[in-house]
Structures are given as C-alpha cells and as structure tokens.
Design a protein that fits this description.
The complex is a heterodimer of chains A (391) and B (145).
Chain A lengths: L3 E2 L10 H11 L11 H21 L7 E4 L2 H16 L6 E5 L4 H12 L3 E5 L9 H7 L4 E5 L13 H10 L3 E5 L18 E5 L10 E5 L14 H4 L7 H36 L5 E3 L10 E6 L4 H10 L2 E2 L5 H4 L6 H5 L4 H4 L2 E5 L6 H20 L2 H6 L3
Parallel strand pairs in A: 1-11, 3-4, 3-5, 5-6, 6-7
Antiparallel strand pairs in A: 2-8, 7-8, 9-10, 10-12
Helix pairs in contact in A: 1-8, 2-8, 3-4, 5-6, 8-13, 9-13
Chain B lengths: L6 H8 L12 E7 L4 E10 L2 E10 L2 H14 L4 H5 L3 H7 L8 H21 L5 H4 L13
Antiparallel strand pairs in B: 1-2, 2-3
Helix pairs in contact in B: 1-2, 2-5, 4-5
Bound molecules: pyridoxal-5'-phosphate.
Chain lengths: 391, 145
C-alpha cells in the first residue's frame, strides 16, 4: 500500500542534510558556548554563525535581534507576556489578536486577561483573512501589541502582514506575527514588513523539534520569560541547544534557497487535489483559495465526521489531520473553522492535508481515488447525510 | 489516533455489523445531535418480544460507529427486556474499553436502543415511560458545552 504523509503542518521529517550539519554538535562539539576553551568556543561560533545567517534570511538588520528559544510556543508566549508585562507600567493594557490564532497565542491571551489585560479578537471572515482596516479600528491609546499570525496552521490562509505592519507602525503600536507556518513558504522581510516581533520554529521546515526563535527588533522593551543565566544577551536563559540552532539555520537556508521552485510545484499539486475533491457533492474548501500556503488543503465534506474520515484515510496509508472535535480531544470542533463561520456540524467533517516536496502527482492521484470512496461509504451510513443530501 | 482505540473498536469501525435501515421497522430511535458531532439511529424489527433484526446508521467518530455496531450485535436476537438492560458499560467492556473522552459514545448507543424501543411501544399505543424509563437526551447533556 502507498504511504502518504500529509500532515506537514503538524510537523515534518528531519532533512538528512540538516541532520548532517547538526551531527558534530550532537557528538564531538559538545562544549558549552559560555566556556572559554576550544569546544566551547567552537559551539559559540556555530551559534553566532547561525544567528547571523538567520537574520539575513529574515531580512533583520542585526543578528542580535534573533533570540533562540525552544520553539514556536515559547516564542509566542514570550512575545506577548514579555511585551505586555513590560508595558503595563506605561498604562498599556490592551491586546489585539485574531480569533483563529494558534493556542500558543490564544491561551497566552487568556492568561493575560486574568492579569487584567483586555483582548480584542478580530474576525477573520469566511475567507480566513484578517482585514487590515479592522486592525486599525481596534487600535486604542492603551494598546500594547497587535499579534496576527502570518499564515494559519489549519486552513493555510496568508494574512496581509505588510499592510498590518504599516498600520501598527503608523500608530506606534508593536506588531508581532507568528510565522511558524509561513516561514519557508513565504518570503519574509521583517524590516520591509514593519514586523517588530516574529516567532518561528524549526520542526515545520524539516528542522529538528524543540528549537525556534523570536525576532525582537532592536530597542523594543520586553521582559524575560525564562530567567537564569546570561545566555542570549541576558534575555533568554538556558544552555543553548547548539545542534537545534544549527539545524534551524540549515533548514531555513534550504527552504529559502528552494522556495520558488518548491512552492510552484506544491501549488500545482495542491490545486489539482482541491479541484478533484471539489467534485465530491457538498464539499467545500475552507479558507481563501488564492491567499493560501502552497502546501495546504483543508476541506469539509458534509454529512460525515472528521475522525471517521481520518481513521479510514489511515487504513489506506494516508496520514492527515482533522479539525473535528473528536481528534483534538477537546470535544469542540476547531476554533479556526468556527471563526470562518462554519456551523458545528460542518466543522466536524473537516480534513486537513498538508504536503511537502516529497509529495508526488501519483500521491495526489491516489488520494483522489481513495477519498471519494471513503466519503461515500461514510455518507451511506450517516443519518445526517440522509437529511441534507437533497437540500 | 488509532492506537488509542482497542483492536475490537477498530474492527467494529472498519467492518461495522448491521449497518443500514430496516424497511417498515417496528421501532426507530434517533439520539444525539449534529452539533456535538454524533447522531445514532437504530432500527428494530420485533416479533413477539424478540428483536429479530437490528440495524443502525451513525454520523460520528470512530468510537460512535464502533459502539453502534457492537450494541446492535449485543441485542440482536434478544428480548426487549434483555435489550433494555444493556448498559453503556457493557458495550464498552465488549469493545475492550474506550478512551475517556469517548465514553459518551457508548451512552448514546444505550440511549439509541431505548429510544427505538420507546418508539415501538408508542406505535403500539403503549406509554413507554414506565417500561423504558428516562432515556436522557442530548439537549440536557453538558458533554459538548
Ligand atoms: C501557527 C503555530 N504557532 C505555534 C506553533 C507551536 O510551535 P512549537 O510546536 O514549535 O511550539 C505551531 C505548531 O504547532 C503553529 O502551527
């Protein structure tokens, strides 16, 4: 049976090239960068080389604006908590974000609400795109920070980051973006796009798990999240994850170098799959078709439930994901699908497939052969389908 | 995902028993709602007081389909009294257990059977309440709130 990994938005396979670059730092070069002898300094050099190269790839003007973290979640927590707690004394107590952020942002906002911050959750409309004018309207005198993700992890919609950045800069409000899903698929330039803080993680771009970064523009006031030693210029304690940092840099470099061709190929496969799946009656694509990550397909099939679809995909060798309540264990369907206005019963029937450069046209053909059969089988046993099929 | 389900659950999900409808069924029960993501519909053919045929249709997750399938197997050929005694726990045990978040699926299976038997009594002009008791319904469950 064909095996297809179609869950690259969850995580990706570590690239062998990246692993090779990491290996020395997992073996011989085990020194602590804070130490002055040979292998310590060698490790330090590796970290600083990676920092400089990553800064260049993100369009940052200074390598010292890159702070390494344990991943996207930490970076998101740090950006919001660090800025808000710092600006509280200046009378800032308002946060603007969107309804469909990753939980690393949403749950951090909930925690800040408990500390007395007010949060505006912007609408993302049916196409899953934030309106820059909504951001502008929501900005207040006491707004500390705006946080809008670069691309959504479930429906892959790409947000108008440069426009939002411009608005925030004009109003002198800090702007953070969670670029965990966008990095490697979209050209990012923090300076041109007026981004003040940006979160990224290595494991979504064929790098290792447990390593990410927060870009913090020079001069921004931010409290520490992790206290301890003097690493990362006193801003983020903890002995550096050297191999992870080297892997993050290598993975981003490959992604930047291959972006154009890779994305072109992925878009063709994605569009073929979307067109094919839309042939299924009462199916829909979730989120804008045009402003969409090249790797993301997210569909709903009415009358069936997402987990059942996933289990049957798995029985056919396809690993995918679903916004159905049942898969998350949280019992509510995906907050992203509800945010774009899907009713609960339709949101329960969603499936997300996310691809990478190893995906082939034959894979897509196979998925197009399998999915309609599964949908039919599940609909044939669905009392809900009975009621809605002729509507 | 799949590994959190027992082999029995996966077997009943992959090869559900007694799927479909019964024409001119003697009792039909539907429970759950699409908002919480599960609907179960049970069809009964009753002769004397024996459930000679049972069929189901389910919209829901793997556990919902598996519990429906197992429940139909457990009551097919049994008397009404025996069917009414089937608890969600018995369905779960027969499936070698369910993950905690899926327990409500087995409750739905128990309710679906009771709803179908109630419907049968109603069709006979008999008040089902003293016999079947309180079925419990989705609107009063806080499972998906
Ligand atoms: C948009 C987004 N933000 C944050 C994260 C969290 O990143 P990490 O797993 O590196 O903590 C993820 C990944 O799950 C994500 O998709």
């Amino acid at each position: 049976m064909r095996e297809i990994y179609a869950d690259n938005a969850a995580t990706t396979k570590l690239s062998p090239v990246v692993l090779e670059k990491m290996m020395p730092y997992l073996t011989e070069v085990y020194g602590n960068p804070s130490s002055l002898y040979g292998i310590g300094q060698e490790a330090k050099n590796a970290v600083e080389t990676a920092r400089a190269n990553i800064a260049k790839n993100l369009g940052a003007s200074n390598p010292n604006e890159i702070y390494f973290t344990s991943g996207g979640s930490e970076s998101d927590n740090w950006a919001l908590k660090g800025v808000c707690e710092r600006l509280k004394s200046k009378g800032k107590k308002h946060i603007i974000t969107t309804k469909f952020e990753h939980h690393a942002i949403l749950h951090t906002c909930k925690a800040l609400e408990k500390q007395g911050f007010e949060v505006t959750y912007l609408d993302v409309y049916e196409d899953g795109i934030v309106k820059p004018e909504d951001v502008e309207k929501a900005i207040r005198e006491d707004t500390a920070i705006v946080s809008v993700m670069y691309a959504n992890n479930e429906i892959g919609t790409i947000q108008p980051i440069a426009e939002i950045g411009k608005i925030c800069r004009a109003h002198k409000v800090l702007f953070h973006t969670d670029a965990v899903q966008a990095a490697g698929y979209v050209k990012i330039n923090v300076v041109e796009e007026n981004i003040d803080l940006l979160s990224m993680t290595a494991h979504k771009i064929h790098g290792p798990k447990g390593c990410g970064l927060l870009y913090i523009r020079k001069g921004i006031l931010i409290n520490n999240l992790i206290e301890g030693g003097a690493q990362e210029r006193n801003k983020r304690a903890g002995t550096e994850n050297i191999a992870g940092i080297v892997g993050l840099d290598a993975a981003l470099q490959i992604a930047v170098d291959t972006m154009e061709e890779r994305c072109k190929k992925l878009c063709a496969l994605r569009d073929k799959l979307i067109d094919g799946l839309l042939q299924i009656p009462k199916s829909r694509l979730n989120g804008s078709r045009e402003k969409r990550l090249p790797s993301n397909v997210n569909m709903c099939f009415e009358g069936i439930e997402g987990e059942s679809l996933l289990l049957r995909l798995e029985m056919n060798g396809i690993s995918a994901s679903s916004g159905s309540a049942c898969t998350s264990g949280s019992l509510d369907p995906s907050h992203v699908l509800l945010a774009i206005g899907l009713p609960h019963e339709i949101a329960h029937g969603s499936t997300r497939m996310t691809f990478d450069e190893s995906t082939t046209e034959e894979d897509i053909d196979y998925i197009l052969e399998v999915v309609p059969k599964i949908v039919k089988l599940l609909r044939d046993m669905s009392p809900l389908w009975e009621k809605i099929k002729d509507k | 995902m799949a590994f959190t389900y027992s082999e029995k659950v996966m077997d009943h999900f992959a090869n559900p028993r007694n799927v479909g409808e019964i024409e001119n069924a003697d009792g039909i029960g539907e429970v759950g709602n699409s908002k919480c993501g599960d609907i179960m519909k049970m069809y009964l053919k009753i002769e004397g007081n024996v459930l000679v045929d049972v069929k189901f249709k389910t919209f829901g997750c793997g556990a919902a389909i598996a519990t429906s399938s197992m429940a139909t197997e457990l009551i097919k050929g049994k008397t009404i009294d025996e069917a009414l005694k089937l608890t969600n726990k018995a369905v779960m045990e027969a499936l070698d257990g369910l993950p905690p978040v899926k327990v409500h699926c087995s409750v739905l299976a128990e309710q679906a059977i009771k709803a179908a038997i109630s419907d049968y009594y109603k069709k006979q002009g008999i008040d089902p309440t003293p016999i079947v008791g309180d079925i419990g319904d989705c609107d009063h469950c806080d499972h998906c709130e």
